[in-house]
Amino acid sequence: MENLSIEIVKVAYDLYVKRGMAHGHDLEDWLAAEKIVLEKHAKEIEQEVNIIGAAKEKKASGKTRAKTVKTFEKTSKKTSINRSQTKPRKSPPKKRT
Fold first, then answer.
1. pLDDT tens digits along 3-42
2. How far is it, in rounded angstroms, from Cα 26 to Cα 19?
3. pLDDT tens digits, residue range 43-53?
């Protein structure tokens, strides 16, 4: 991003020089320079955004999956502990006839 700022400064200065170094048009020159530079680099910026977005999605889906697995493991452990702590059921007494 820093390189873009430097490039914008250079283009804005070139526009200022082409205008005959007339004062009072700095904002116009700056905005025009931003437009020129950003249009020039639009594809690069779009690719970077897509890469970052894909990385975030991958990271988020990994966290979600890991959390789901972790929750499942905890639940499974609790269930097995609860089963081992319960007393075995006795069958009802047989009726004598």
1. 889 999 999 999 999 999 999 999 999 999 999 998 888 8
2. 11
3. 887 888 889 88
Residues counted in the chain: 97
3-state secondary structure at position 7? helix
Q: How far apart are CA 39 and CA 69, in angstroms?
A: 45
Q: Are 34 and 15 spatial neighbours (Cβ–Cβ below 8 Å)?
A: no
Helix axes 42-85, 26-40, angle to 10 degrees: 60
Cα distances (angstroms) measured from residue 1 to each of 7, 17, 44, 54, 64: 10, 25, 11, 20, 32
Domain ranges of the chain: 1-40, 46-74
DSSP secondary structure code for residue 21 in this structure: S
Tokens coding 45: 């910026």
pTM of the model: 0.46
Could you identify the residue written with the tokens 């007494």?
93
